[in-house]
Design a protein that fits this description.
The chain is α/β, with parallel strands linked by helices and 670 residues long. It folds into 4 domains: 2-108 and 198-237 and 402-443, Rossmann fold, CATH 3.40.50; 111-192, no CATH class; 242-395; 450-666, P-loop containing nucleotide triphosphate hydrolases (Rossmann fold, 3-Layer(aba) Sandwich). Helix content is 49%, strand content 14%. It has 27 helices and 18 strands. Strand 8 and strand 9 (386-395) form a beta hairpin. Helix 20 packs across helix 21 (497-507). The longest helix has 28 residues, at 274-301. The model has no long low-confidence stretch (mean pLDDT 91).
């Protein structure tokens, strides 16, 4: 296969004959050959491939060549939808054409991403939604359902809130299977059939872990896995393997059966006796009263403070829901005994199972029965809906779970990302996700950072760990000077909303020639689109803008990193992990917090240069990269580029960028 890869990827090879601007990338070839070896020898492979290497082609080509020899299936799992779309709309069709190999591929998503026609029509009939906005949204989905071919939420041309979509999407518990009156038109069934025929199946990390949680009933059998954006699999696994019970979830469960205010729900359509109907009303009243007491006790105990609250004590509030939920479960069971309508039966059976699940999860939460989990309460204000109170629990460590479910198998697993190593080692990443053997490869970016990028850092700045208030006051001043030097087209990245909001407020009105955009003012995708279209935009963002964002070209020429992205130490999951490390008599700061922050720091830097034509600056305002011993891990993790601590150098750098751009537009030699 090695010679095949060479003939495809070298100068004069297949790729160069189909791509006019093709350049041989030796880093890409090295990665492709390593993937081919891993496939052949059935070994795991961890690959850090810098931005611009073209890692998707580097792992796709060996697996496509493999389809000529064996009828095997590879899962390609990503975190972002952007990468999924790139794979199925661009990379795979291109390779199918260029390589001349007949192979089957598709994008397969979790069932909740597909419209369920039966649930859609049932929701319309039962009148579950009672506000004008929700009814209008439902009508638009109904119209769309008549023309869509795939029924996928991502294909909607308008935004449908999850509160609505969750009631009309396909759900495993609610599926009637062969008894469904809409079986022939079922979008998910069609997609699942295609998935079983595909040789390259593109999925996301959430679906992969859903498959594990379901006992491997979601995905077809597979012979190998590629995890792209692999630096995120620990977080996804942690969240997906956790549990949660909220007051909103309980209320919606009751309203689904019968909403006393609107007098709608499944009950009016069930056509049961008055006696049984009365029992349902009483049971719902008891559950609502019980959840008001239960979550009210929690709010009282925690003084209703918004945020996260670690719960260390067992039975920290009485379980005032155990009896009401048991009664509710029994009443739903009696309802199903009287009903003959298959659709309503399917819905009621699902609600009954959810009732059991909620009861079990509450019992586990209060008794802290899972010793390897961390428990906390999350309190959030919701406009027009009051306080959302959620009891949560997740595993502290997932390495042993992933090791058993993935890495102890005999098939090859490829893990790749632009950010997996710290100080030249994969040890941190491998330890966190449970990889104990296999090969490793680091290939640097093919970009010329010495000419494309400038790193500006600040030494004379208050230490945010010691003088946070003084640091907070200085950030807007320095950010303003930098933004004026670059003329906008910038991301300003934060680790907290407090610093984001104070900086944004301080800069509003001082940068009149720029369009200032703030995370939280509109949905993430809308904010990004606005950024791409606005005049001299500056986007102020937190964690979700540090990674998975691709804005190539002159639209983004500056990334300001305000603080080193250390995880908040009192976050319940982080706190529990630090305690585990201390128990093992290790230094949690150097063995966990610094490596984790370095990987996210590299992701933030990576937002800037996305193509060979890009140029710009990354500014780091946190002085600890200079003043602390661990600061070198952050700076050394970045590509070799121009570096400065002088603002005049920044101005000169951007003057050259503008001059070069003007010359190119004029047709003069740059």
């Amino acid at each position: 296969m090695k010679s095949d890869i060479q003939s495809i990827m070298v100068a004069g090879g297949l790729l160069s004959r189909h791509l006019e601007s093709y350049e041989t990338r030796h880093e890409q070839i090295a990665m492709a050959e390593a993937v081919a070896r891993a496939i052949k020898e059935k070994r795991h492979l961890v690959v850090e491939a810098g931005t611009g290497v073209g890692k998707s082609l580097a792992y796709l080509i060996p697996f496509i060549l493999r389809t000529k020899e064996k009828q095997e299936r590879v899962l390609v799992s990503t975190y972002t939808k952007t990468l999924q779309e790139q794979l199925v709309r661009k990379d795979l069709p291109f390779l199918e054409k260029v390589l001349g190999i007949d192979f089957r591929y598709m994008l397969f998503m979790g069932s909740e991403n597909y419209l369920c026609l039966r649930r859609l029509y049932r929701t319309v009939d039962t009148g579950l939604f009672d506000t004008k906005e929700k009814i209008l949204n439902l009508d638009k989905v109904l119209e769309w359902s008549r023309t869509t071919k795939n029924g996928m939420r991502s294909e909607l041309a308008f935004e449908v809130p999850w509160a609505i979509w969750s009631e009309i999407c396909r759900e495993t518990d609610l599926c009637m299977g062969k008894k469904c009156p809409h079986l022939e038109g079922c979008f998910y069934t069609r997609a699942r059939k295609k998935a079983h025929q595909a040789q390259i199946l593109v999925i996301n990390h959430h679906l992969f872990f859903a498959n594990i949680a379901s006992g491997y009933r979601v995905l077809p059998r597979y012979d190998s896995i590629v995890f792209d954006e692999a630096h995120l699999i620990e977080d996804v696994a942690t969240n997906y393997l956790g549990r949660e019970v909220s007051n909103f979830r309980l209320k919606f469960l009751c309203d689904k059966i019968y909403n006393p205010r609107t007098q709608k729900g499944l009950l009016p359509y069930a056509k049961v006796s008055e006696r049984l109907s009365g029992e349902v009303h009483t049971a719902i009243e008891r559950v609502n009263a019980g959840q008001n007491r239960f979550f009210g006790e929690i709010l009282l105990k925690l003084e209703a403070r918004p945020g996260t609250h670690r719960i260390r004590a067992k039975d920290f509030v009485p379980n005032s829901l155990v009896e009401p939920l048991r009664e509710f479960y029994g009443v739903i069971g009696r309802l199903t005994d009287e009903i003959r309508d298959e659709e309503i039966l399917a819905e009621l059976d699902a609600e009954r199972r959810r009732c059991i699940e909620i009861g079990n999860d509450l019992e586990i939460f209060l008794t802290q029965a899972l010793g390897d989990h961390v428990y906390w309460v999350d309190i959030r204000e919701r406009p027009r809906r009051g306080q959302r109170v959620a009891a949560k629990m997740v595993p502290i460590k997932v390495a042993s779970i992933l090791k058993e479910a993935i890495f102890e198998e005999t098939f090859p697993v490829i893990l790749t990302s632009a950010t997996l190593s710290v100080a030249g080692s994969f040890e941190f990443f491998k330890r966190r996700v449970g990889v104990e053997n296999g090969d490793e490869l680091r290939v640097d970016s093919s970009f010329d950072y010495q000419h494309q990028a400038l790193l500006y850092s600040v030494r004379d700045m208050p230490d945010p760990g010691l003088e946070n208030q003084k640091f907070t006051e200085r950030v807007p001043e320095i950010a303003r000077d930098l933004l004026r030097a670059c003329g906008g087209r910038a991301f300003v990245l934060f680790t907290s909303y407090h610093l984001l909001n104070s900086t944004y407020d301080a800069l509003c009105g001082t940068l009149s020639d720029m369009t200032l955009l703030k995370q939280g003012d509109m949905p993430r995708f809308a904010l990004l689109e606005r950024f791409k279209q606005a005049q001299n935009p500056v986007l102020f963002g937190t964690s979700s803008f540090w990674q998975g964002i691709d804005v190539p070209g002159k639209a983004l020429e500056c990334v300001v990193i305000t603080k080193l992205p250390f995880a908040v130490p009192d976050d319940p999951v982080t706190e529990a992990r630090l305690e585990e490390i201390r128990k093992a008599r290790k230094n949690p700061f150097m063995t966990y917090q610094v490596p984790q922050a370095v990987i996210l720091f590299k992701q933030g830097f990576g937002r800037l240069i996305r193509t060979k034509a890009d140029a710009g600056m990354v500014a780091v305002l946190d002085p600890r990269v200079h003043t602390k011993g661990y600061g070198r891990f952050f700076i050394d993790a970045l590509p070799s580029c121009l570096r400065t601590e002088e603002l005049d150098t920044v101005r000169t750098f951007f003057d050259k960028i503008r001059s070069s751009r003007s010359e190119k537009q004029d047709g003069s030699p740059a």
